[in-house]
């Protein structure tokens, strides 16, 4: 979609115009936002093996990155502080670079089987404190850095999105083989994928080997 396909007459561009479209926010929805991690939020985080972290560049370009590990990988240091390990990745460092430029972050914690999610908003810094990194050792390896989040807003998000999507319904699972492999897609988008299926299989197997050897 380009700007030329959007009729300016139908754009919503003011807070007043936006609020006029929807019913008033329920009082409970306003009151549920906490400035700290209560026992329910801590329990949710302890169960979560996965989160998404939203950041933005100094110019305001948005980015969302997934983070995953065994349940409890995010450490609650106190009621206002979370610690997220930075595991090996592709070294683009989008999230970390964005935090340096603009420390505001949004977190979405997801627990398999739970339709509700936990949202945490705050400000982040990058730490190399050896005592903190030691809390996140896995298979004898420490993360190179960790993201320390100062919590400003915490609330549970209702189940509607997950129930609409039927995300956890086994009958809704799709066959990944119906699309090209990750390696093939990236090569299609860059230098070009090999035409020989056997050569492509070798590349795909190489990625799986790299996954096994470089998780931590």
UniProtKB/TrEMBL annotation:
Pfam family, one: PNPOx_N
InterPro entries (UniProt xref): Pyridox_Oxase_FMN-dep, Pyridox_Oxase_N, Split_barrel_FMN-bd
Domain (Pyridoxamine 5'-phosphate oxidase N-terminal): residue spans on this chain: 38-158
Name of the protein described by the UniProt record: Pyridoxamine 5'-phosphate oxidase N-terminal domain-containing protein
Organism: Paracoccus tibetensis
Lineage: Bacteria, Pseudomonadati, Pseudomonadota, Alphaproteobacteria, Rhodobacterales
């Amino acid at each position: 979609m380009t700007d030329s396909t959007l009729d300016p007459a139908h754009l919503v561009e003011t807070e007043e115009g936006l609020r006029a479209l929807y019913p008033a926010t329920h009082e409970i929805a306003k009151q549920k936002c906490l400035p700290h991690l209560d026992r329910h939020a801590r329990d949710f985080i302890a169960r979560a093996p996965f989160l998404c972290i939203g950041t933005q560049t100094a110019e305001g370009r948005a980015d969302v990155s997934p983070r995953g590990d065994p349940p409890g990988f995010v450490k609650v240091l106190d009621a206002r502080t979370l610690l997220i390990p930075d595991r090996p990745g592709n070294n683009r460092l989008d999230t970390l670079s964005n935090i340096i430029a603009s420390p505001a972050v949004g977190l979405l914690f997801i627990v398999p089987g739970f339709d509700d999610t936990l949202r945490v908003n705050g400000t982040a810094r990058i730490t190399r404190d050896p005592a903190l990194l030691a809390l996140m050792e896995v298979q004898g390896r420490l993360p190179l850095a960790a993201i320390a989040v100062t919590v400003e807003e915490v609330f549970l998000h209702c189940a509607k999105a997950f129930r609409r999507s039927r995300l956890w319904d086994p009958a809704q699972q799709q066959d990944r083989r119906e699309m090209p492999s990750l390696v093939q897609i990236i090569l299609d988008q860059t230098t070009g994928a090999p035409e020989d299926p056997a050569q492509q299989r070798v590349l795909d197997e190489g990625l799986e080997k790299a996954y096994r050897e470089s998780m931590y």
